[in-house]
Each structure stands twice: as C-alpha cells, then as structure tokens.
C-alpha cells in the first residue's frame, strides 16, 4: 500500500459515477457506432454542451469512449454491451446499478443503525417502475453470466423443473433450450412474474413454461417436480430462513429429485472473493437480514435438510458457485 493507492481506492467511485451518469442521461441510447460531436448529443439529451463534453472526456479517459478530431465514438469492444443493437446489451442491468448507487452513500448509516437505506419491497413490487428495472436488470445480467453456469448444470433425465425466486426466468429458459424434454414452473411474486411473462412470451420455449405466483417462504411448495433451481436468491435469506426453505424443497421434491443452488458464496473465513464480500454490504442496503453464505454454510444446510451426494463447483472466472444435492 501507499498514499497513492489508498487515494485511488477512496476515489474509485468517481469512475462508477461517470459511467452511471452516462447511463442515466441516456447517452448510450442516443448514439450508435458512428462518431459524433458533443454539441449534437447535447441537443438530443437537453444537457449543456460543456458539461456533457466533460463527461465524455472522462469516459474517454476510462476507455469507454474514444476521441479524435473533437468527435467521440464508443469503444468498439463495448458496442455489444452498451448499444441496444448489440447482442449482449447490459443497459438494463446498469440502470439497476443507477438505483443502487445513491444507497451506497448511506452505507455508514446502514451499518450504524442496522436499518436498510430503502425497503426491499421497493424493487419487489411496491414501486412498479423500480421493480421493472430490477427484473429487467436481472435478465440483462443473467444473459451475460448464464452460459458458463448453464453449461455446468446437469439435468439429464429430469422432466419437471421448479424455479424458485425465478425473477425473469432467464436461467430456466436457457435450461429448456439445453434440455428439449424439460418443462419448468417459475415461482415468484406476482409483479415479478408479470415482467417474466413478457420475457418468456418472446421465447420459443414459452409453451413449456408455467407460472406459479407466490412467495416460496409461505406454505408448501408446488409438488410434482424432480428438480429445483434456486438461482441468485439464497443471499436474500438468513440462516434460519434458508434452513426452513431447504426443508420445504426437500419435502416437495420427488424421491431422487435434485436441488441446484447457484449464488455468490464466500470462503469459510468470509473474506473472499472480494466481489462477494462487497455484495454482502450491497444486500444490507435493502435487506438487513440478508446473508451471503459461505461454501460450508450452504453445504451444511443442505445436509441438515436431508440432501445427500452434495457437490460444490466454482464457476470459472465468476464469483458464482453451484451446489447440487439429491433427495434419497
């Protein structure tokens, strides 16, 4: 460490703020792959040219933009990720980051009080616009991270998949692509499933998807499934609620059924990987009882619920891990 590296860490949020300001202003929605002048973009966005040029210059320094002869252009490597015409557009995911950004400024107050910066219900249906950004953001992020995860999930011979806390249903959709004889039931809160229905309707596998509105924390789970996917939601639970959920999954699964848990998991001492440690703080901003589980906690809770043949796998170049268990 040095004074320089310490100040670099303390100022790291400047870079995030510049990128997210561009997302929030609609910079990437207003441009294409062609060069443009700040004055032209200023007229389209209704922002002062000098202020907008300062933002664009900073984005050039961050290698998000390029500048030549006074004209700006999106970096070629980022066109698939930041243009709507790109095949891997992440703008919806980044818009949800815009919602989270101001909450991080209240982190010390959250730690001091134990109270969230904003209620979790805001992105689970209480605020319809925020909820939609949340679900679309999950879909956008899932499309980028799902391929290596789906490649590591083996559902050979399974017939009916129950997707708990399914969100946009992106992972189920990709698993249905992989396994043509598989059907899926998406279980989530009604407002979330409203957005999921729109996404699934545009998919060729839509006819093999059913929807079950409700909370997986309330009442017995729908029976008749031989596989359960629990993806990207374990971090919303406490140890007690996760224990109850895994017991409920065990009771609902058919004999020989399989549970697949996908989430960010921590090392046993909870200090790595760094992204997961920071994500644990991110969860506290909205859900004080949330917990990013360690590998050993997740496997132990599945064993306690009655699952056997537990297998833990780490997704390469990703903070995500996959834990699989079987119901005897």
CATH architecture grouping of the largest domain: 3-Layer(aba) Sandwich
Please give the share of residues in helix: 40-55%
Number of strands: 9
Strand content: 15-25%
Give the integer mean of the pLDDT values.
94
CATH overall fold name of the largest domain = Rossmann fold
Contiguous low-pLDDT stretches (5 residues minimum) are none
How is this structure best described in words?
This protein is of the alpha/beta class. Strand 6, helix 12 (239-252) and strand 7 form a beta-alpha-beta unit. The model has no long low-confidence stretch (mean pLDDT 94). It folds into 2 domains: 3-84, Winged helix-like DNA-binding domain superfamily/Winged helix DNA-binding domain (Arc Repressor Mutant, subunit A); 104-326, 3-Layer(aba) Sandwich (Rossmann fold). Strands 5-4-3-6-7-9-8 form a 7-stranded mixed beta sheet, with helices on both faces. A two-stranded antiparallel sheet has the order 1-2. The chain is globular. The chain is 47% helix and 17% strand.
